[in-house]
Write the structure tokens for this entry.
Amino acid sequence: MAAEIDVSRGRAAAYFYKEPPWWHGGVVSHDVKLSRDVLRLAEMDFEVQQFPMFAQFRADNEIDEDTGLPSRPRLLATDAVANVRMDTRAVLGVVSERYTPVQNREAFEFMDGLIGSEIVIESAGSIRGGRMVWILARRPHTMQLAGHDPHALYVGFVNSHDGSMAMRVFPTSVRMQCMNTVRLALSRGEAEGLHIEHRGDISKKIATAKQVLTVCDYQMQAYGQIGEDLHSQEIARTDAEDYFQRILPVSDRLNAVTIRRREEAQRIMLAGFDSPDVFALAGTAWLAVQSATAWADHYSNRRLSGERRFHRCMMPGGQADRFKQMALAIGADRFLPSDSEGRRLAASLIERYTVADTV
């Protein structure tokens, strides 16, 4: 079992539709479940309430001479409260008094309202004792690239109960042939998804956040156009090799371990280009980009813990997420004609990602 998955109730707090996770834990359902049922099956049906924080003096501090008892046994922290998980009585975090908790049931209600009656919850759960929760919901239609490469469209939701992060809502897609995750952020403001701070009137903020689907639709249309244009560009094997070298460069300035890992990564990506999972993609720039994405999702994180793998692949702004954004940008810059619609749509990505991040 992944060490970070919440097991406060003696069972893994995770739900998956049809496909079990890599660690083969949690509840797997082969039937579509309503959100209220997923909330229960994923062990996420707990409430978070806030309680005052006190500083507790030791018994030998400030002893009253008349009574022999501590004169000031506790001091109230006036600007902080504790977020307490009510079923386990665990303190999940200490936050500002202005912090407003968003309950897990509210998160599911939000996703229901965002997607509608055709919502399919693909996965949901909590990690670190309930300090962080996630929901991944599939939208009711898919996107076909080049008529041969189906992508399922999703909306992801992540929230923390320990004050470590704001709520985030972000669009993503999964290439169904190989389960690569791809998220397109066309501007810097979209790079980490939509943020909802735990302050003020949360209900109004959530209502405003429903506009995210408009952003999702635009991003996916743009991603589809970029993919179509990349698919139309036939490239040689040497072009693919140059591309992989550009996104994961090897130079004498790197240490021996990094050089070895990058050379191995380039071999894996080139093997993906040589052996396409969809024959119609063979020899195209789109296959080169997907080979890089596949490496980021399935090979680059094998040494990481479960939580770090989750953050790396799924969280907006995670290391693998940034790498995939960069791979798409450099692919568009390297292979698309200057007058193509796909290159125009990818212009902000190309401007942002000019040098490979260390992976």
Notes: Confidence is low (pLDDT under 50) at residues 175-192, 355-359. Residues 224-352 form one domain. The chain has three domains: 14-46+101-210, 50-96, 224-352.
